[in-house]
Amino acid sequence: MRFPKPYTLEQIATIIGSTYVGPAEFKVLGMNEIHVVQNGEIVFVDHPKYYDKALHSSASVILINKDVECPAGKALLISDDPFRDFNKLSVFFRPFQKSSTAISDSAKIGEGTILQPNVFIGNHVTIGKNCIIHSNVSIYDHCSIGDNVSIHAGSVLGADAFYYKKRPEGFDKLISCGRVVLEDDVEIGALCTIDKGVTGDTTIKKGSKLDNQVHVGHDTVIGRKCLIASQTGIAGCVIIEDEVTIWGQVGTTSGITIGAKAVIMGQTGVTKSVPGGKSYFGTPIEESREKLKQLANVKKIPGILEKLKE
User: Fold this and answer.
1) Of the candidates 2, 206, 218, the residue with the CA atom closest to the CA atom of residue 93
2) Catalytic (active site) residue 218
3) I need a labelling partner for 137 at 20 to 30 A (CA). Which of 50, 122, 154, 255 fits?
4) d(CA 4, CA 192)
5) Of residues 142, 152, 215, 218, which has the active-site annotation?
6) Which residues form the domain of 48?
7) Segment 103-130, tens digit of pLDDT
8) How far is residue 50's CA from residue 36's CA, in Å, rounded to a whole number?
9) Is the pTM higher than 0.90?
């Protein structure tokens, strides 16, 4: 997420009440998670396992809970609880804004777009031309929708990321302040849920089609002309490349990539990244031909055991 204007390192430190390492006037342009952070932005890290990754990332400012040597050209924000302070920044730069009407006055809706009864359109939402938004759809703040998009009844765009830190007293939520972006010619079935990014975008690219009851986790990117069948659950930070087909009741783990033109057969558990251009099946996931051979061989086991008894 980019800030509405550049802030200085000193100003950011004042907002969260932290100390800092670097020039007071060091320019800070935004904040983001490690997998999408860009030059000029803040990333947070609170576990030794990820210190080096954060310090050598594209981030210009690292919000960290340890005194470390500051990499050249970067700055540090030293905090006893980076998770908490990252949330403070989220609330400061994108506070929750109550809606007073079903269709926000700040929403921009293109020519020829139809909104059926009981649709909710949040603050600063943009919807393109010739879209159809069916009844009981909820589109949360800051979502962006292209032209010729169809969203069927009961779907929710922009719900919070499922992202928590375990603490002794319970689970502490990482506040979501990102967006959902649908490009042109996308169709979303009924009762789908598409979570917004934590600080970035959850994106469904041009021409992709989702069946009913599909869940898409935070910061996931679905490529062009993908087909995703019903009851599929896609975790956060997944990359699905162009022209992938995913059949019903598939589930994925987070942070993986499914290569272009892959086919994921029904009820598969996508436990790892897989190359494109192949068909996959089973849990754990394997190429479908290999998996089906294994299943055929399993059926032979009783006969083999009977022969061994002879």
Assistant:
1) 2
2) yes
3) 255
4) 31
5) 218
6) 2-93
7) 999 999 999 999 999 999 999 999 999 9
8) 15
9) yes
